Amino acid sequence: MSTKPKILIQLDPDRQASVFDRVVGVDAGADHVFSCRHVTLDQVQSLVHGAIFTRGPDELHRTAIFIGGEDVELGDQILAQVQSAFLGPLRVSVMVDANGSNTTAAAAVLTARKHVDLMGAVALVLAGTGPVGQRTTLLLAREGARVRLASRSLHRATDKADEVNQNLDNKITPVETSNDETTAAALAGAQVVIAAGAAGVRVLSESARTGNADGDLKVAIDLNAVPPLGIEGVEVTDKAQMRGGAACYGAIGVGGTKMKIHKAAITSMFEANDRVLDAQTIYELGKAL
Predict the structure, then answer these.
(1) Which of 67, 125, 166, 242 minimizes the number of CB atoms within 10 Å of its CB?
(2) Which among 223, 32, 53, 9 has a CA at the least distance from the CA of 132?
(3) Sequence-distant (≥ 6) Cβ neighbours of residue 223 within 8 angstroms
(4) Can you give the pLDDT at residue 170?
């Protein structure tokens, strides 16, 4: 059995490599975290080759690659470059979680399904055109939910829904949430609402949320930890706190699940050398926890 140390190679296109991702890597069992910052697409192949040519095939499971950074689309492009640089069995496991979008979306959907059978449920994703919102929408739809993808601009919501719908049989409905009236209309009849907006931006007022007189809403999840919070009236530390008939979660309330998934995903990469952890596989891993 190999005794070589576990090495996590952090590919981060940002000016500074994420300290958060490095700490989680160590806490998840990596003996060393090699942080590469300012990574560009044309550098990826040589970085990957440095990982796969330095150990024998039976030892490559002790090396793994983590793709981070703030730019989610660039993270996905780096993932594609990493995979194209592998040579048959000369490969290592790789995980992409740029801006924490995949682990956060997985945690949000797994939290919602504790309270609601998602098959056939109506779910509203506020700020659905953003990186976390897009992934949350996709995961909910794949669970059979009837998803409403919301944006302040109906045009943006429609464009993003059309893009996501290309990969789905269960089609997503775009909705506008430019004011309290349109937001309340978008929320009507929904059993789940997940707010995935930018830090410090309110996307659902308390009046729009509590004015949902039909009582259908069963769970409200706010992923914003910076005041003003995304869902007014939900506290950042809420964890299944009942408010207005709905189980409410704040960012810290969901954060424990997110961290558990993140650490488990990194740990799993050191069990084999051929795992690719993207939004869907990270979600499936979270289901098994």
Answers:
(1) 166
(2) 223
(3) 104, 108, 132, 194, 195, 196, 197, 230, 251, 254
(4) 76
Extents of the domains making up the chain:
7-96, 103-254
Residue 2 pLDDT > 60 = no
Cα separation, 177 vs 208, whole angstroms: 11
Q: Of 3.40.50.10280, 3.30.1340.30, 3.30.43.10, 3.30.70.270, which CATH number belongs to 7-96?
A: 3.40.50.10280
Q: State the pLDDT at residue 47.
A: 98
